[in-house]
Amino acid sequence: EGGSGNISPNGFTCSVSTSGFLRVRAHTSNQCVNGEAYVFYLLNGSGYRMASPNPTKGDKVKVEFVDKQLADDLLNSMVLYNEKEKVMWSFDKASAKTNKHFKDKDFVEIETKDLSKGLYYLHLQIGEKKYIERLGVE
Whole-prediction pTM value? Predict the structure, then answer.
């Protein structure tokens, strides 16, 4: 889903074409038994995009993901720190799952209206990868 490609029957070669991500659903089986089902992603980039303008003068900043199911499956946490490394805002997978955040949307909004002017650092944990984005608030 989200791209195209093929995996050879012998499992030694793979070619993929994707604009942002490829979600692969696989189910193992043999003549005797059905095996386990797997879902994994191949990302072309980080899987998200920070909204602009940056620096922002608005009340909110939007972090958009290439796919809502990808965000629901892979986003572990987002934490906004100020320059003194104090947590100013956070979003975690448990609360996103509980309130079904990514059911109808592929983004997370960060309210910036109560933040002081300055630089902030958004830490994203997506799957096994960590990303840090700088966010200016004017």
Answer: 0.77
